């Protein structure tokens, strides 16, 4: 496998509290790599730091420490020419396609503008038709229309088409299908899969939905409160080792799990609020306050676990797997 992009011990601190007096780490010591022609699924619940990581990779944010390496070079040490090439090579796709486009411009205006900005082809019209067809759209049905005249699924296809116009190497897709209905979701995930197999385009798929990650992910990274808890190939979701991953998989709702009563939702919210402070102040594992296996003896409440390579390529950040 050939590496395309690598995160090395990336940490991002933000200010929090009144007047931004205290700092907290939204992302801490995150390392993983995306290979050429592969899909890496980054899974995590709300607030775990997924979008922060996407923004760092897209160079919208600088990490507080750590490095992001693209084809062997630190993306924050690029010169102007390398930066321009990077902005072409790495394209973002976002959750809400309606807010990704200027509502006053038609689809052709939008795509022509991108084509002009990146001089995508000598024949922009042909290039635009080609990418629209590539994402399963009939050009006639979308050209000349404004974003609000398209469905969410059609518009998300247009955003992928726009990204493809500049022939990227990596797509950073932040919850690209969360706002779409189930069948459209699968269609869009299938497009990402086809781009991988057909054009060797890699994707960092960010999602809170484990089933999406398992559906298309070659590699999986499980994030919790800014920490990578477990990572490895897709089979780690079949045999998860970290107690958090196990819990995440067990909490996937199914047709037979109808239990979300008001009382249970309120109890869960109260528990989360109580945990919030311990999680920010803990010197130990971020998951310790929720973990059924956490113990003083293992040091879960006082010592931060390192990433432990339990088997080749399968990393778990948990004291249970420390070799003694
Ligand atoms: N600019 C900012 N200033 C301060 N805190 C921030 C900022 N941006 C994000 N955060 C905080 O950092 C943490 C991680 O946020 P982030 O948006 O990366 O999470 P996420 O995993 O993408 O969540 P979601 O699934 O809800 O999109 C959250 O606690 C969030 O409140
Ligand atoms: Mg997010």
Strand composition percent: 15-25%
The computed structural class is: alpha/beta
CATH class of the largest domain: Alpha Beta
| Reported CATH architecture of the largest domain | 3-Layer(aba) Sandwich
- Number of discrete domains: 2
Order of helices and strands: EEEHEEHEHHHHHEHEHEEHHEE
Question: What number is the mean pLDDT?
Answer: 91
The molecules bound to the chains, other than polymers, are: adenosine-5'-triphosphate, magnesium ion
Task: Identify the overall geometry.
Answer: globular
Helix share, percent: 25-40%
Largest sheet: 8 strands, mixed
Rg, nearest Å:
21 Å
**CATH-assigned fold name of the largest domain:** Rossmann fold
Largest sheet, order of strands side by side?
Answer: 6-7-8-3-9-10-12-11
- Count up the helices: 11
Poorly predicted sequence stretches spanning 5 or more consecutive residues: none
Q: What would you say this structure looks like, in words?
A:
GO terms for molecular function: ATP binding; ATP hydrolysis activity. Residues 5-250 form the ABC transporter domain. Keywords: ATP-binding, Nucleotide-binding, Transport. By secondary structure, the chain is of the alpha/beta class. It folds into 2 domains: 3-217, 3-Layer(aba) Sandwich (Rossmann fold), CATH 3.40.50.300; 244-324, no CATH class. 35% of the residues lie in helices and 24% in strands. The chain has helices at 50-57, 80-89, 97-100, 107-117, 124-134, 139-142, 152-165, 182-199, 210-216, 243-250, 262-281, and strands at 3-16, 22-35, 39-44, 65-70, 73-74, 90-93, 170-174, 202-207, 219-224, 227-233, 308-311, 314-316. The chain has an 8-stranded mixed beta sheet with strand order 6-7-8-3-9-10-12-11, sandwiched between helices. Helix 4 crosses helix 5. 38% of the residues are buried. The model has no long low-confidence stretch (mean pLDDT 91). It binds adenosine-5'-triphosphate and magnesium ion. Magnesium ion binds at residues 50-51.
């Amino acid at each position: 496998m050939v590496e395309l992009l690598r995160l090395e011990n990336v940490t991002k601190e933000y200010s929090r509290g009144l007047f931004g007096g205290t700092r907290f780490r939204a992302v801490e010591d995150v390392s993983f790599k995306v290979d050429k022609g592969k899909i890496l699924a980054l899974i995590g619940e709300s607030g775990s730091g997924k979008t922060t990581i996407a923004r760092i990779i897209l160079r919208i944010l600088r990490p507080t420490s750590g490095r992001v390496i693209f084809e062997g070079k630190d993306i924050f040490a690029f010169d102007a020419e390398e930066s321009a090439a990077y902005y072409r090579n790495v394209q973002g796709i976002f959750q809400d396609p309606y807010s990704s486009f200027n509502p006053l411009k038609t689809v052709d205006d939008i795509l022509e503008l991108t084509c002009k900005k990146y001089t995508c082809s000598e024949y922009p019209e042909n290039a635009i038709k080609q990418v629209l067809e590539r994402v399963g759209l009939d050009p006639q049905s979308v050209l000349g229309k404004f974003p609000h005249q398209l469905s969410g699924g059609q518009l998300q296809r247009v955003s992928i088409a726009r990204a493809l116009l500049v022939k990227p190497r990596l797509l950073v897709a932040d919850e690209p299908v969360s706002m779409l209905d189930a069948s459209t979701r699968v269609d869009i995930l299938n497009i990402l899969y086809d781009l991988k197999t057909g054009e060797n385009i890699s994707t960092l798929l960010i999602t809170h939905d484990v089933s999406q990650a398992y559906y298309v992910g070659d590699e999986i990274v499980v994030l919790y409160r800014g920490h990578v808890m477990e990572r490895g190939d897709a089979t780690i979701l079949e045999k998860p080792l970290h107690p958090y991953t196990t819990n995440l998989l067990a909490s996937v709702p199914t047709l037979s799990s109808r239990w979300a009563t008001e009382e249970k939702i309120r109890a869960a919210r109260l528990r989360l609020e109580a945990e919030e402070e311990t999680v920010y102040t803990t010197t130990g594992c971020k998951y310790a306050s929720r973990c059924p296996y956490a113990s003083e003896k293992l040091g879960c409440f006082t010592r931060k676990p390192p990433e432990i390579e339990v088997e080749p390529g399968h990393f778990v950040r948990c004291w249970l797997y420390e070799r003694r």
